[in-house]
Sequence to fold (1255 residues):
Amino acid sequence: RRCGASGGHLSPIQFPFSLSSMAYPSFAASSPQFRSVGTEGEYEVIHDRVVIRAAPSTKAAIVAVSALGDIWSGSPFEIERLPWLRLAQCSLEEHHIKVPPNVEGCWMLTDGHSVGLGQLLRTRPGPGASAIPGTKSQPSRTSSSVAVPEVKAEPSGPCDEFIVVHEKVVRRNGPSLDAAPLQIHQRGAIFKGVPHNCSEQPWLHVDNEGGWVLMDGACIGLGRLLERAADITEDVLLWAQQQRFGSSESAKQGHWTTEAEQELLRVEATTRRQVSPLRNWCVHNAVLEELERAGLLSPLDRTLGPAGIATRILRLLLGCRLGNLVLAEQPLQNGLPWSEHSFDQFLVEKIEPLAPFYCRILEPDEPPQRILVLLHGSLVPGDGLVPEAETLRKFMPETAIVLPEAPVVADEALGLLVWWPLPERRPIEEVMDARRARELGLLRAPAGTLQRLVATVTWVGARFKGVPLILGGFSQGAMLVAQALASIRSDVRPLGLVILSGLVEGFKVPHGVKCLAIHGDRDERVELALAREVATLDCTNIADFDFEVVPEMGHEISDFVVDRVVDFCDRVKPIERFLAKQSDSDWAQELHRTKMMRWVKHISSVITMFDAPSFLSHMMVLDMKGLDKSCPALGNGQIRYVLHDAGRESRGLVILFHGKVRDLHQDTSALSAAYGKFCLSVCVVDYRQKFSQFCVDATIVLEELEAISSEMSSPVIIHASGCGAIHGIHMAIASHSFPAATRRRLRLLVLDGGVGNFRSLPKTPTGCMAVDPIANDAKLKYVGIPLCILGGDDACCGLVGGSSGHFTVLSSAAESLLSENLLPSAAVSSDSALLLGTEGARLNPELYQAVLRALDHARDPADQATEAFVADVLDSPDLNNDVSRMEHIPTADFEQICKDVTGIALQETGRAALWAVRTKQEPQRGQELKHFILAYHAPILKQHRGFKMDEHGFHEFQNVVAVRRASSSSLAEAYAKLQEAFSLEKLDHHVWQLERDRAVSFGVRLGRCHEVLDRALTAWRSRGLLSDALSRSRLRGGSTQQARAVIRELSAEMNLAHAKKLGFRGSATEVDQQMAQMFGFWSSHDLSLSGKLCEVQECVAAFSKTLTNELCRQAAATPRLDAAPTPSTLSASPSALSAALPAPPPAHCETVSAALANATDESVHAATQSSVQSSSIQSADDLGPMPVTVFIDRELGLSSQLMMPLGSSVRRIKEQLAAADPIGALRPADVQLRLPSMGGGGAEGVAGGNNVCRG
Fold:
């Protein structure tokens, strides 16, 4: 803290400690050319002057100069074939030589023939010489009269620090138990030295104090004496603890606190963060030279490699900082940038400008003929351009593509990078507005970033010396290359410059450099007007400059842009390419294949949410016993397979994609044996258990068919079971982007209990999807080969197992495609693939015939299916780059959208609508849920910039959230609540729990309640019930009062009949009471049941009105008693029977007469007269507040329910609707209401603000 490394007050731990005793990497451990050639001895200088250096190199720094006749103690080594003497520490002290703190040891060259001199040092004979190899004279520490037996000592390990783990050890003057003792050291003492093997005993030659210490006392009845001490780079706390007890007595008594430990860990974390970039930068000579000049590195340290150099500097910095901060050592005064602040400044000012960016290189097998350096945009991962680069590499196989990575991390959780940081305090609108950002200077790259790009281009030019180079970038990367172009050295200057969606200001272009700028007319990040303005006004001085506008393209790199980049590279530096010699059809085939691979990778990146075990467990056995490592692999070891080879007589190959099985080998053996009876080889594929990688794995199998079967023309049958149908269908579809010879091999696709679509799977907590992530039934139109669809016995999707949905959707889709001539043929069977007989398993007859036809009849590639796949999928607008297009929107915005939509969905109207969707049956249930979800998302997404109100906008939102929620716990939590708000599975589980408690549910299932109300609706709308009511009314006189009595009678009879079916017994009053309680209970949970009760009451009111009108009409015409009512009288549309005002409480079956009085229009007044009839009549005064239902969208089931006091005006209703608006943007004047019984939307059907609701 004294050096300003951190703020605050913390007393240092009081145990003084010398940096010289720290564990540094020894030269013996670091250099492969380092060899010990003898033991320590005394040497005499026989030349006029000999230089003492900081490292065993003639270029190392000079520490001192020794004169003729000086005597030195040290150990001889051979380094890079040169003889060197490493001087002992005690000898340096005797000559009063002060060694710099950053120098590990001092060295003298013993023979100068390599530098034009003669012998420099010689072994000193005489009494002072060491009489025993491996020992030396210690005049200052022991008596010279002690005789030491001669032993042979050989180094057994590198120089390191060792700690005493025994109670005490003896340091001797030789590697022998008979050698004279020098000093006794207690437990915890630390030695630095080189371990030796002396007469099969481990001894440590102490480097700093001299002498020898036995390391293992087994030979004398003791245990381990020394152990390797903790490394400061591996465990700071343990290192500090050991150093503390290995120091003086005063240090041992120092106060050790939790605060001190936390500070140690903080210093370690900071130091590691600062040193981490050096691992990538230390491969460049300019960086190494600067580190040497700063004293952080010695010339010999270069042999450590980048990782070793970084560890070396980490050890040095930690030792310096902890020696000052914790061990109370004095700060170094040698100019070394060791403190936290000074080292950061040193990196920024000295190292970073010399360090190229980290680069990914896609290099061809042969020496490249051209280099393309392409920089990604802002707020993307470092590999953001890898898919585009792989596509470019397909078209330019002789070109090496270099992808630098931006240095600044903008979002650590998502791994998003930028080339230079954006201002944090600026409003997001200013930052995202390119024109405004340019005016504020936010689009100008810092000088350091420009220097690093220049260093990167220089490094690429040196790596590919003499190869022409083209420089390009996208978005922010394009701005950077344009600004740095003029600063690049002429010997590595690019021949061409590509600016993609990043032309924001003029730039200097050296003579001879061609430029291409491409921009989309729908670019939402950099508007086209700005780019066109710069191209027209600021780029006129560029000799060869092309500006192209791509229609219907946003801020992205489309396939068209990739094609234009290829053309530009060919124009800048034409090369002889193999693809250029191909025919147009082959070139188009290669284009389709690369587009297909890019499409597959985009798809896999946006459906990772389905990799969750909660979803996959329905389709797969997650702990399935797969194939072991002894089986061959495909796709660089990503998937494995086993081949049941039929031998030389093989008629073809079956690719088997399994379904839900427990033991892959055992559960597929019977099917493989059945195919083997036809002399067919069977390849069982063990694909990855990741839903997002299903299509990728299928593509890998298709690409490596030749690796599976050496026969390049044999027929191929794809047999796909369960979820393997995703692989099988994709493999057939992907073949359209492969050569015709490959497509011709695929003869048959067998879907054996294959998955049909997402909706047919068991209910899972994956949430709502705007687009089916499986959709195999829709994909069949692109297959283009004969089909065989079997019911199958897959545990998840098989018809034999009881799941009929998948077989139904696939077989229906196949029949439809056959009728439209979009399929060559299709065989359908509800049985499984295998039939058991006395001779073992055999193929299903339908499958047997389909296989025979496939083997006997070769087919031509289906051009129709190929054209459809290319047009509908490969050449369609790219809808899968939603994540990159929404990269500028903060994660907090998506979290807020989730919360807003959840809040609206949990309101009473939303809950009622969801309950109504639950009552539907598939597939109507899934379709209505989709419309319901879109309706609730649309207004919220509309408020937010960047989203459309259609299905595409919802799809964009889902894809981005699916990717970002993996790294944002708050977004994941908000999205989970959003899914729960639209979860039908949650409602189903809730109903199941209520139905289990027969006491509260009266033993009646909710479904029976809906059935009762549906039958009641059907009855009240039937012609027969109206005829019966007319007959009864005429027999009783035909008055209105008698008609009402008949309705009450019919209602009582209907209630009693329904009650008996539900199991209720007792008198009519008791039954009515039980029914009311039962419906009241279920209505409090299922809000759609409340709406249906209101609909029944409205239907009864319509029935009463129709009956009364018919009686009046017949009375006026003096009709016969048996006259049938006219069709016009009996027809009542559902909308006409759904009156919005009023509706009685759903828990009671009451009769209410209500009207809108004082209407200014008599027709409106007449149309609003309604009476709601049921089993009893009460006065309006007994009812209290009236529930009012206002329908917003009947098709989506959107409505709002209000409780209004009797006498409320329509204006008051409008005010209540406006107050309930969750957005707060609705005003009462914006609301227009009409009665459901009135058609149209004109003035005649609109309820005015002066009407009064009376009961």
